Amino acid sequence: MAPHQHHADGCCGHQHQHYNHTEEHDHDHDHDHGDASSFKTYLPAIASFVLLLLAIALDYFSAPFFEGYLRLGWYLLAYIPVAWPVVREAFTTIIKGDIFTEFLLMALATIGAFALGEYPEAVAVMLFYSIGELFQGAAVSRAKNNIKALLDVRPDIATVFRDGEYISVDPKEVAIGEILQLKAGEKAPLDGELESDSASFNTAALTGESKPKTIRKGEQVLAGMLNLEGVITLKVAKKFEDSALSKILDLVQNASAKKAKTELLIRRFAKIYTPIVFFLAIALTFLPYFFVANYDFNIWLYRALVFLVISCPCALVISIPLGYFGGIGAASANGILFKGSNYLDLITKVNTVVLDKTGTLTQGVFKVKEIQSEVPEKEFINYLASIENQSTHPIAKAIVTYNGDNNLLSVQNVTEIAGHGLKAEINGNEVLAGNGKLLKQMGVVYPTEADEKVETTVLLAIGRKYAGFVTIADEAKPDAKQAIVALHSVGVNKIVMLSGDKTSITQKVATDLGVDEAYGDLLPEDKVTQLEKIKTEPNRVITFVGDGINDAPVLALSDVGIAMGALGSDVAIETADVVIQNDMPSKIATAIKIGHATKKIVYQNIGLAFGVKAFVLILGAGGLATMWEAVFADVGVAFLAILNAVRIQRMKF
User: Fold this and answer.
1) Domain for residue 313, yes or no?
2) Which of 26, 78, 94, 529 is the most core-located residue (most Cβ within 10 A)?
3) Is position 587 within any domain?
4) Eight-state DSSP code of residue 187
């Protein structure tokens, strides 16, 4: 149970601190007692509950033998299993100089109740506190499940080819360049390049997407990807500790290190609040002596003890970090990694989204969009693909891919004319493939329509006679338009697209997708200038979304930097505040929605805790609340706050 854990900042010592080993207060004696699935964890509470029920029944029926020392001993027996960890922790924290903790409040309140003969209330307070801790442990485990799934994706064994055979070794022992074997149903233990012709992988554990991904020979396979069919091989590209997944695991495990302002405020509040209520309780015990006729020490001490139980700040200090942790877990389940709960808060204030075009809103893969030819289309494409096959340019590759299985023609005497295109001989004919400048230079007349196209145009001439043209364009991602609509729906009032592509293409993509403003022909430094210009506008909170490789300066400059589809990019993981693990721009709006849902839950919990506690504190000070109402005000409110905090795990975004 959580009372075993030292709490160094004067608030509740709860399991959520186990997930953050980088706080300013290191807990060198932390124990992972949050395993709520263990029967041993529940045993003290079960024993205490059974003994308390029996004692209350004996009291109710006024059993003649159940009185005096036997009754006291029985209630002590019920009290000790749940109280000992709390009392021990109260002493431990006092010795370490941290006096005013929740443990001291609970210990004083219940020991005082015993001194006044209120045995059932004393046991009940500590029992319900203990159950609350167990319940909290289960809630934290639930919140952590999505992150656990990510932490468990990397296998412990690698099958590596050595000395003519495949052997099983620890992934940490595998060197770069070695060959690994993956059978169907096995996960890649390390990053590498696929050696087999092609393979289908389930990337759900990394990206949150269940749709299988086909990877071809020479392409990147990341640790944690699940091989879906057949036996394949891959060449290791990175050491165990350098894999993208290792960096992501570090990011997730340390996400709670960066606290939201609300969380930090509540922690500071609890450090001041706890000693104040302690001294108020003392005042409530003794001050009435000077103002109240018929002063009864026992009555006012009981009221002070009730006051102490009610005033415990547990509901706040438990539920607020749990709410943020739940938000981080929910985001992870959706393939979105937040580097800290502070970014969950900040993303809710974003009103301006600036996006890179290529690789963020578009797929970054060129495809043939339109063909206009003076000769049969199949012949035209075959000629064009045959000559373009001599080039390594992405546009040339797009044309060759479009040609498909058609046999390429024999090409001789290839000449590249810089900035213009290619000249070669095919079937004894001079063939030209390139832009309008090339055809004009060679005296070939062609329709002006080709020059009016927004997209990149490749023209073809056979035997100095115009044969036709193709347009090549980068396709928008399937959910790009949906992403823009979704961003407007979550309160973003300005969406800007920046691109190094030519302005005409950039403007066309922006118009098609519904982007508010677009700027093309930008170098990386121009993107920085453009973002700085937007930042000068009043009340702008900006998120920049890019591929994380060449956009690092702009990612760092924005209020919230989001790296898109950057699972394999070290730069993205290091520079961005939020990492979207797949290529879906619609996840930007999802991240904002999760931020809003988390913030709403946190503020609901603050209102609930303060409201109920203030009401019952007044009743307690006036003698209208007993220990039973105090239990509800403390543990009951904590229960409700925890239930509210874990709701985010069930939400659909």
Assistant:
1) yes
2) 78
3) no
4) B
Same domain, 65 and 96: yes
Burial 336-359 (b: 16+ CB within 10 A, else e): bbbbbbbbbbbbbebebbbbbbbb
CA-based R_g, the chain, Å: 34
Query: Is residue 570's pLDDT more than 90?
Result: no
Residue where the block lists tokens 């009864």: 296
* Cβ proximity of 497 and 509 under 8 Å: yes
Helix (H) or strand (E) holding 6, with range, is none
Active site residues: 356
3-state secondary structure 493-555: CEEEEECCCCHHHHHHHHHHHCCCEEECCCCHHHHHHHHHHHHCCCCCCEEEEECCCCCHHHH
Query: Would 219 be classed as within a structural domain?
Result: yes
Q: Are residues 139 and 36 in the same domain?
A: yes
Q: Do 552 and 356 touch, CB atoms closer than 8 A?
A: no
CATH number at residue 377: 3.40.1110.10
Distance between CA 191 and CA 206 in Å, rounded?
Answer: 13
Which residues are paired to 496 by β-bridges?
Answer: 354, 517
Q: How confident is the model at residue 139 (pLDDT cuts 50, 70, 90)?
A: low
Are 43 and 137 contained in the same domain?
A: yes
Q: Residue 30's pLDDT band (boundaries 50, 70, 90)?
A: very low
* Position 588 in a domain: no
Q: What is the pTM of this model?
A: 0.68
Whole-number average pLDDT of the chain: 82
Q: How far is CA 77 from CA 39, 85, 88, 566, 648, in A?
A: 20, 14, 16, 58, 39
Contact 468, 372 (CB under 8 A): yes
Let me know whether 507 and 632 are in one domain: no
Q: Whole domain around residue 30: which residue ranges?
A: 2-149+252-330+595-649
**Predicted local confidence at residue 511, as pLDDT:** 93
- For range 378-393, the mean pLDDT: 90
Picking from 43, 23, 42, 41, the residue whose alpha carbon sits closest to that of residue 32 is 41
**Domains in the chain: how many in total?**
4
Asked which of 476, 503, 533 is the last residue of a domain, the reply is: 476
For 434-471, how does the pLDDT look when each residue is reduced to its tens digit (9 = 90+)?
A: 988 899 999 999 998 888 888 889 999 999 999 999 99
Contact 411, 385 (CB under 8 A): no
Q: What is the pLDDT of residues 306-327, one digit of tens each?
A: 888 887 777 677 778 778 888 8
